[in-house]
Amino acid sequence: MTITPTQSLIFDPELIRRYDQPGPRYTSYPTAPHFREDFDERSLQGALDRSNTSGRPLSLYFHIPFCEHLCFYCACTKVVTRHHEWGTPYVAHLDQEMALTRAHIDGNRPVDQLHFGGGTPTFLRRHDMTVLLDSIRKHFLLLPDDRGEYGIEIDPRALEPGTLRLLRDFGFNRISIGVQDLDTAVQKAVHREQSFALTAGVIGEARQLGFRSVSLDLIYGLPLQTPESFARTLEAVLAMRPDRLSVFNYAHLPERFPPQKRIPDADIPSPDTKLRILAESIATLQEAGYLYIGMDHFALPDDELAIAQREGSLYRNFQGYSTHAGTDLLAFGMSAIAMVGPTYSQNIKDLDTWGTTLESGHLPVERGLHLGDEDLLRRHIITRLICDFSLDFAALNRQFGLDFHQHFAASLPALEAMASDGLLHMDAHTLTVTPQGRLLIRHICMAFDAYLAQKPVRYSRVI
């Protein structure tokens, strides 16, 4: 199997230290802090109505916010409770939200992509999960024969027997499991105790049931981690041979995420230690045959993400990397973010207000954004950089009717400086990110971000 040069990676500690600055993760452009409150329910309804003329397939996201336990590192929108009965009214409200949305959506548009995130989607008891799956099937046209990309985040600590079979029978074909770290001291320090045996058991069951892809999440920079302890975690994880791995940097921002206040600053690894953990992890993953897809993600060469990247069809949205571009993303649940045509919209973040809004017959839109032509241009560039690590100026000029070098004259000095430092190559025709620059792709994308100077936002560091 041919591996393209863009799927190689070189860890350059000097470059990383120089460019490791705060920046957006670019799950969208413009990023969520720039959404506006004047984007309301009527704005979303109009976007949904207009989207039908395109005939684009659909992508569905369901946010299940509940967690039994509070993980101290977590920055997700969640509701911590042991009351599993709370899932019943939540699922009923999701059905109401789907019905209100379907009033504006052509029912013949197929669902290419489906994702359950959270929180902990498997917090839902089997009865509530069954009701939710039946509701989705009632409202939307699902693809048969495993043709869709249908995934769910699994917490092995909150998984009833038979739930994986239920999900697989419905059509889910990929799972993502949060591992974070297998060291018992680290697990206790972040209040997430999850044994290797429990995780391996869920993976074994998923593979026996025919799930096509297993993805595991790890976090480096957690309290009490050392290069040696994380190497042991990685060794155990690789023994399970996941199809994909995400190795995220822990961003310690206790002023923004109050649960992180329970992590003493003194327990967090130093920046140099974090870099050593990352460097050694990358070397281990490359030796094990994994390719760096980008933005913390690794995959085996025969994984769909790796193949899509080589073929130039890789895509990225709020759900992460995907092989399904050209869809309208509908989002359900508190705080969920939709992407319909040239718009973004985010739901109300408060659980009770989200529910009462639906009960009154209204879509629970809190804020959003209409993207202008300049936004769409820059979003395209940032997306292609994150997915392809290259830009073809002539193709951009044809697609958007512009002269790249003239249009982005203000960005050229920053790009030329990064070229001098070895992060990228740029000539009259193309921009190509080097193997040394791939870890710093967020910083390269920032050269095209027109919003960074408009509103001060506290972002995590690039590495």
Automatic annotation (TrEMBL):
Binding site for [4Fe-4S] cluster: 67, 71, 74
Entry keywords, A to Z: 4Fe-4S, Cytoplasm, Iron, Iron-sulfur, Metal-binding, Oxidoreductase, Porphyrin biosynthesis, S-adenosyl-L-methionine
Entry keyword Iron: yes
EC number: 1.3.98.3
Gene Ontology MF annotations: 4 iron, 4 sulfur cluster binding; coproporphyrinogen dehydrogenase activity; coproporphyrinogen oxidase activity; metal ion binding
Highest taxon listed in the record's lineage: Bacteria
Gene Ontology CC: cytoplasm
InterPro entries xrefs: Aldolase_TIM (IPR013785), Coprogen_oxidase_HemN (IPR004558), Coproporphyrinogen-III_oxidase (IPR034505), Elp3/MiaA/NifB-like_rSAM (IPR006638), HemN_C (IPR010723), rSAM (IPR007197), rSAM_sf (IPR058240)
Cofactor binding mode and count: Binds 1 [4Fe-4S] cluster. The cluster is coordinated with 3 cysteines and an exchangeable S-adenosyl-L-methionine.
UniProt protein name: Coproporphyrinogen-III oxidase
Organism: Acidithiobacillus ferrooxidans (Thiobacillus ferrooxidans)
Phylogenetic lineage: Bacteria, Pseudomonadati, Pseudomonadota, Acidithiobacillia, Acidithiobacillales
Gene that produces this protein: hemN
